[in-house]
Amino acid sequence: MVTPVLPATARALLARTARVQRDGRAPSLVAGVVRDGGLAWSAGRGDVAEPHTDVQYRLGSISKTVTALVVLRLRDEGRLGLDDLLEEHVPGTPFGERTVGQLLAHLAGASSESPGGWWERVPGGTLAELRLTDDDVVLGSARRFHYSNLGFGLLGELVARHRGRSWAEVVRDEVLLPLGMARTTPRPTGRAAQGAAVHPWADVVLPEPEHDAGIMAAAGQLWATLADLGRFAAFLLGDTGDVLSPATLEEMTVPAGIDSSSPGWSAYGLGVQVLRVDGHTLIGHGGSMPGFLAGVFVDRSEQAGAVMLASTTSGLDPLVPGLLADLRAAEPRIVDAWAPSPPPLPLDLLGVWFWGPAPLVLRAQSGGLLHLGPLPGRPGRASRFAPRADGTWVGLDGYYAGETLRIAPDHLDLATFVLTRTPYDPEAPVPGGVDERGWTAP
Known about the structure:
The protein is of the alpha+beta class. It has helices at about 5-25, 60-75, 100-105, 125-130, 150-165, 165-175, 215-220, 225-235, 245-250, 320-330; strands at about 30-35, 40-45, 55-60, 195-200, 205, 225, 265-270, 275, 280-290, 290-300, 305-310, 350-355, 360-365, 370-375, 385, 395, 405, 410-415, 415-420. It comes from Modestobacter caceresii. InterPro entries: AmpC-like (IPR050491), Beta-lactam-related (IPR001466), Beta-lactam/transpept-like (IPR012338), DUF7586 (IPR056008). Pfam families: Beta-lactamase, DUF7586.
C-alpha cells in the first residue's frame, strides 16, 4: 500500500516543481515521487487538465529502456546472446560485426541519428528505406560510449523479426500491459499534451509535430501518463512481475565501461542510464523529443523514485534528482532491523586472509553472500561473491566480477591468486613457491 508523503514534504516537492516549471517556461509539467509500488505524491503545473496523472506526454528515449526489456527477454528465453553479432539476427547492415550487447550499451559505434531527415520531426519508414552505409558507422566497436538512437532502432527491428510482429505490438503485449501500463501507447490517445517549443526571447510557443517514427520508434516513440511512468519506476525498483527476472534487471543496471566504485560519474548499462549524484546511484532514463521532456530515475538504496513529464522542447533544469533529494532529506528510509542469520561458511573460514603480505577480510553478508576486501581504512580490492551449485563462488562486482572463488581449509584460490592464513604460508600452494629462508631481517 502506498503511503502518501507528509504535508511538509509535499510542500517542498511542490515548491521545487513549481519553480522548475516557471523558470523553465514549460507550458505544462507533471511530476511525482514513487515508493511502495506507486505514486506517493504528484502535482501538475501550467496548462494541464486534472487528473494530471492521466494526461499523456511523449516519453522520448525512455522508450529505449522498454525496448531493452524485450531484447533481454529474448536473451533469457535462449533466442539470442548479448555477444551475438547483429548479422545473425538482422543481416545486411553495416553493423553486422557489432554485438547485441554493444548496441544495448551504446558501445557499437553507430551514428547518433539515423540518416536522412531529422527522425524526431519527420515520419519514418522501414530499415530498407534508411539505406544505411558505412558512413553510419562512426566509431570502432567497444572503443567508447557513443549514444545512438540508430542503434536502438536496429534493436527494435531485431525484436520485430524474432517475434514476427511489430515492435509496438511486442512491447505492448510483453511489457506495458503486464505491468498495468494501459495508458502507454505508440501514438497519443485520449487526453494528451500538445508538444511545444518556447521562443527563447519571448513568452510565446510554437506547436511541435508528432508522427510515426517507423523503424526509429524503438528509440523514442512511446507516450505515457504520469501514473504509468510511476508504475515503470516501481518496476525499476524491483517490482518486475512476470516481465523480467530480478537478476536480469540487476544485470541491466551494471555500468558498461566505467568503474562504478569511483565517485561522481554517469554511465549506461543495458538500456538504462546509471548516474552518481551526491553519493547516490540513480537508475533510469531521461527522454526528449521535439515538444517534450521526460525523466524516470530511482534510488534503489532508498527504495524511492521520481518521475517528470513536460510539454517543452528544451530549457528545464533537472527536476527528478532534486525531487529524490528532497524526499530523502524529509523522509529518509527506515531500514529493516538487523537480525542474526547463519553464515554461508563455517566461522573458522571467515576473517583475515593474506594476498601475499596484504591482509584482506572475508566476511559473511546477509542474503548468503561473502565479501572479500581490505581491512577498514586500508586500500585494496573488494568484491562480493554469490554461491554456485558446485560449491564455488562467483564475483558480483568490483575487480573480481565474474571471477571464481574456491575455498579450501588452508587457502583461497581466486583468479590465479592464492590467499593464505599467514603471509606467504609455505604450507599452502602459493604460486611460485615461498623462499625456504623464510622471513628475515637482512
